[in-house]
Amino acid sequence: MALKPCRECKKEVSTEAATCPHCGVSKPVPPSEGAQLAGVGCFILVLLAAGYCFYSVASEAPRPNDPEDRSVALVVACEQRVLARLKAPATAQFSKGVHSTQMVQSIEGGRFVVHDYVDAQNVFGAKIRTNVTCWTRYDNGVASVDSLRLE
Ligand SMILES: [Zn+2]
Asked: 4-37: per-residue pLDDT in tens?
């Protein structure tokens, strides 16, 4: 084992000594530069790993304040409610090609109106277009439908 000067009393102590046998200071010999560098390297690796974990969790978590996510959730909630009202839901085709954020109009109190239309067969088998107006609300990432008007 190597001997090095104590950081307090400067007398020689073992590099492996937990305390200096002369003055009693703990860790009398600072770790060598190589060990310090290795320690810094490990620390950076840990930071990178933690950062990666945080990033992947954050990017998969729902973003309740993201207007696009909110619009999609509101439109999906309305379309599900519309399907429950249709005579032939299997024939339903909702307006596509319109961006969901353009279908959602914000009104006061965290509530939103969704404007949509659906083409579906009626009781006579004829395909007709129905305009959908849907009053919704959005709380903590959960979309719910207050009322629905089909005309
Ligand atoms: Zn000492």
From this structure: 999 999 999 998 899 999 999 999 988 765 556 6
List of domains in the chain: 3-60 (no CATH), 67-150 (3.10.450)
Measure 7 CA to ligand 1 centroid, in angstroms. Answer: 7
Residue 1 alpha carbon to ligand 1 centre in Å: 17
Q: Where are the alpha helices (DSSP H) in the chain?
A: 33-60, 67-85, 100-103
- How far is Cα 69 from Cα 72, in angstroms, rounded to an integer? 5
Angle of CA points 88, 123, 72, to nearest 5°: 35
Query: Distance, CA 28 to ligand 1 centroid (Å)?
Result: 6
Burial of 120 (0-12, 13-18, 19+ CB in 10 A): buried
Residue 129: band (very low, low, confident or very high) from pLDDT cuts 50, 70, 90 = very high
Q: State the distance from the centre of ligand 1 to the C-alpha of 30, rounded, in angstroms.
A: 12
What mean pLDDT value characterizes the chain? Answer: 85
Calpha distance 122→131 (Å, rounded): 14
Q: Give the distance (Å) from ligand 1 centre to CA of residue 34.
A: 23
pTM of the model: 0.56
